[in-house]
Amino acid sequence: FFSRLGRILNLFYCELSGLIKQNHIFLMNHSSCREGNKLLLDIKDSDLETATYLRFNVMKQTFYGRKDAATSFAAAINCRPQIMRDAIPNMLPILTLPGINPYTQVELHDKFGPCLDAADATITCPEPSEKIRALVKNEKGDRKTLKLHPTIGR
Length: 154
Hints:
Elements: H1 2-12, E1 25-27, H2 30-33, E2 34-35, E3 38-44, E4 53-57, H3 66-69, H4 73-91, H5 102-112, H6 118-124, H7 130-148
Antiparallel strand pairs: 1-3, 2-3, 3-4
Helix pairs in contact: 1-4, 5-7
């Protein structure tokens, strides 16, 4: 995930490796980082009072989608948030969660569903499908068989 996120950020922002060292302090704040069409990163070489500051423009001049978005650089900068939003679905896959274990789905519905209001129960512990109920019923039977005859299946 993070390597894909890095690839997306590289489409819009300059590479900072080699510029930021281990002891550097860097910051960006909304009120001071914008200067015209630049997006500035403040880099401080230490926490000492005598430390030197470096301001670095992190925005790529030829960022992804610039040529398609607008004719002038300033107009492209204004379109950049939308360009980024449009690029994300193509670059980052939607992660699907594995969901709740089938056994737990049935237990939640049967034991806790009756304790909740109907509207809350449909969200918190919805009715499992017949396929899931059959799977759990078979699993319970297998567990029971293994308890009664522990040598089966070994």
